[in-house]
Amino acid sequence: MTTPPADQAVVGVLAVPGRGALSGMLGALAAGAAFLPLDPKLPDSRLDFMVADAGVRTVLADRAGLARARGIAQRAADGVRVIAIPDGAGDDSRGADDPIADFDGPRLADADDLAYVIYTSGSTGAPKGVAVTHGNLVPLMAWSTAHFGLGPGTSVVQNLNPAFDFGVWEMLTTVCTGGTLYFPGPLGEVTPGAFARALAEWGIDTLHTTPGFFAELVAAGHRLDTLRQVHLGGEKVTGALVTQAAAVLTPDCLIHNGYGPTETAVNCAIHVVDRARIAEGDPVPIGVASAENVLYVLSQEYEPVPDGETGELYVGGPAVARGYGGLRGLTAERFLPDPYSGRPGARMYRTGDLVRRLPDGAIDYLGRVDHQVKVRGHRLELGEIEAVLTACPGISAATVVAVPVAGRSGATRLVGHVVPAVATAGQSMPSALDEELLARVRAFATERLPSYMVPAAFVGHERLPLTPNGKVDRAALTAVPAPAPAPAPVVDIAGADPGSVLAAIWAEILAVPVVRPDDNFFDLGGDSLSALRVVEAAQAAGLNVDPVDILAGQSIEAVLEMIA
């Protein structure tokens, strides 16, 4: 871990998004510590790694996370203590041995003190912790207050997971400016329709969200008349989404396109969309620098490129984080001296994004330099997934590619291409072993990776295709079709029984011709957003289905058992 000051600790916060998570983060900061958000949806192995890598000695947990936090403490090589986060006024859920008395009042932080650590996907096969300081946050908070007009009159509904840096920003910018933060319920369990109704009921005027979820809100068709601004981030914003949003937004509602890797403290660029001039096929720029930052478009020789020409985006200024915990080599590779600032010791972050500067000075995003991709709003390294797949017994090689989902604009899914160890010995891969092995690879990955990093489909190969220079030919693998479901009896979608109704809804939303009772929702291309659409359609058809049923059951037959 990037070493914090001797008297500063990194405190884990294991809580579902809501008041508990917010209390944990603010409590850690008030005590002079940094916080590390721990997503309860992550596998134990990943949580254990993060706690050990960040040097966490204390984990704050809400009531739902106490058992898992205690499991982390038991498995930790060094002593880890667990403190319960009170549920609310009058709650006395802390144990008698909880060292809450160690806190002796707020501590004023220095600019170089850590504020939080966020783990992102790592190309080396392990996640990497980004160390963000108070000096990174203060200019961002001041700028955010002015740019978005935040203050006591602001009303925001929590929409983002605090394990995602955009979610940390969403919470802190609201409560630290005196705004009102509403909690709609567990994220992933609130349908777009219910979410839209909550916006109206609570008079929400500011919405921070990803383009993916905002597209679901727009598709739900409910008017969002209370919103005075929508701040989108985490994924590319399209002109099509902006034009479609006109059907649910008031004409004077602002749409902000925010950009910023975790390494540059959430937001280092902003663009206020001119809704009157944007066309469906137009790109939406990521805009100009925010919060005293500087955006450089440089060549491979680190020289500025002329406006209009493609280069790589580098970010300089106060948002540039301290670096990656415990990874000095990677930190030196990505966080470089800034030769253009004129300030001794100034650094700039190499984003890996290909961009160009437009005539008006705004930056236009073009794509990635490497194999880092966005899936469901998460930025991840394919190398980390490949490292897990190749660690599976019986697998000798693996490559993961991201492919567009047919019929779903902007949606991406991961496909894992694997080579069994038996194939490297010159033996053919039996078809029976193929299905058995691929199922084992999926189970292996599911135990070790967050759900959004587990490939939606797997393909077995005797060998992976190579380019003339000997590298894996990713373009060729991208063209390989993912396996279709094996022939099986087709669900009678014309019937009126619950199974047939669900099959018809799944087929329509996932754009597949056939859905069988045992088909896996995620294998068919589903994700958490499409699960919410399924729930809304099922509830409209009179079925008592909620998002947990889809996410936990994953097949029609399992969902039917859960709602029986």
Automatic annotation (TrEMBL):
It holds the Pfam family AMP-binding. InterPro entries: AA_adenyl_dom, ACP-like_sf, AMP-bd_C, AMP-bd_C_sf, AMP-binding, AMP-binding_CS, AMP-dep_synth/lig_dom, ANL_N_sf. The keyword ATP-binding does not apply. It comes from the Bacteria. Residues 493-564 form the Carrier domain. The keyword Phosphoprotein applies. Keywords: Phosphopantetheine, Phosphoprotein. SUPFAM superfamilies: Acetyl-CoA synthetase-like, ACP-like. This is Amino acid adenylation domain-containing protein.
